[in-house]
Amino acid sequence: MDNQKEYRYLKQLDSPADLRKLRVDELDEVCQELREDILYELSRNPGHLASSLGVVELTVALHYVFQTPYDRLVWDVGHQAYGHKILTGRRDAFCTNRKFKGIRPFPSPAESEYDTFTCGHASNSISVALGMAVAAKKHQENRHIVAVIGDGAMSGGLAFEGLNNVSSTPNDLLIILNDNDMSIDHSVGGMQQYLLGLNTNQTYNKIRNCVSESLYKMGVLNKKRKETIIRFNNSLKSLLSSQQNVFEGMNIRYFGPVDGHNVKELVRTLNDIKHMHGPKLLHIHTTKGKGYVPAEKEATIWHAPGLFDKNTGVRICSPTDGIPPRFQDVFGETLLELAKQNPKIMGVTPAMPTGCSMNIMMKEMPCRVFDVGIAEGHAVTFSGGMAKDGLMPFCNIYSSFAQRAYDNLIHDVAIQRLNMVLCLDRAGIVGEDGPTHHGAFDLAYLRPIPNLTISSPYDEHELRNLMYTAQLPDQGPFVIRYPRGSGTLVDWRQPMKEIKVGTGRKMKDGKDLAILTIGPIGKLAEEAISQVEAERPGVTIAHYDMRFLKPLDGELLNEVGTQFDKIITIENGTVIGGLGSAVLEYMADNGFTPKVRRMGLPDSFVEHGSVPELLHMLGLDTEGIVKQINELL
Length: 633
Prior knowledge:
The protein is α/β, with parallel strands linked by helices and 633 residues long. 40% of the residues lie in helices and 15% in strands. The chain has a 7-stranded mixed sheet with strand order 9-8-10-11-13-12-17, sandwiched between helices. Strand 15, helix 21 (522-535) and strand 16 form a beta-alpha-beta unit. The longest helix has 19 residues, at 223-241. The radius of gyration is 27 Å and the shape is globular.
């Protein structure tokens, strides 16, 4: 933080213990300085801006009231936690956030004891925190456990599974629902505020709990009757406030809504309820992007805006003239084009219409695109239901997020061989978001599933052709995976044509070695081949674009197995179980015995950094491929 001289408080806060030495009336200025520092740093080093701005006051209040790290804070989703990182000993290192070898993009116990659990995806906090609460009770530790769930994470099914278990397991868990108008409506008014004051009053709750416990110990109130009285109390409260909510129906005491940008009120409320027994939920209202007008007005754009001038609010965008479009934009434009031709096509996305560019079709055909919230499993099963009754859904999910829909894909789609298209965006190495977001495993975890067609386009033309092919009648479930970011073709619009399923392409002939690739990483192989052949006169290397992982092109593999005794497979996915494994299996099953060298992501989680940095580290850039070719030759 090279601008720390501007701050009166923040430069003195090396840990939450320092924060707790301040007076409550000093916290407003701490919040202002924290918000300014997040803006300053992210204007120079891009990251997730709007979500962290929205929870500045909550972050300060939580660390002020609770004895972190002994008390546990579980953040969900993790991109809300930038202020948390700054206040927990990473202030000076925050300028390295998301950079190669810098601090991690999301909370990670490997980085700090204040980061209690990994959260790069969404909706896991309630389940995690309940587990921690049970562990604390088992160990007889008097620690507070707080789950902070927000930014749409409550729309995920896992959150409701956790709530269901919270309601039936003895615990003193506090759930904070950060509602930034993405999920839950609420009622307001004088009675609402009166009940909030009553329900958080320590004297009232002390008397309430003492009477209840005394009656229970005297035998006047058995467990069943105790639960009945609590339910009656919750029902009466709902009646008086004209507010029905699922939480109190599940015996989770509900407080709120509270202004999530009033740090003093948050501190008071948290202090009042933190010692209450039983599960509790505090509902706060926040504004995503709070304190920065451009982000408040357009929270979606400013979720992760890239570089920007914080004084003018102007985003600093790279020139686009002559630059190939992003794969997701080719997907979005092509989907709209196909939807105009095929009235059966529908779009489904779990809370990422802009990220995957399905917003292009959504804008023009809003009745044919469904954003189902952060609910990947539901997205797949919902698509399966449409497919069963004759529609053709294109369900677009980021590769690493699709892992959460694995059972749905098998049970609800593949078994019935339903006609739907699963588009896996952000496949392979994605860059600065790190191991929770790399699309490392889709090829490996999808390959064993019967009835699936699994494909990956070499370039944008191939992406369009595969999308066209996938929506043709009776193709069954069809997977298309492609990477994040730009492709290589400026003139990507061309008439679409059908590709015969299960066929690859010979890109180049050769006699000394065969390279088999799948997806756009084949472009790096192409560069490496040219370099090796230029440096080693007389050496020629064949290159095959497999295009389909399932079904494999047996005719092409027979040719390779017959003509070559040295083979390299290259994929932007885990080396275990993907293309390389499939080729080895095919060669063994068909009596071929070439020497096969597999290149792909290692059997370990890959850290964060730019895509070129990570590919170089993994030996999957042109230089690394050249090295492997020379070694095998």
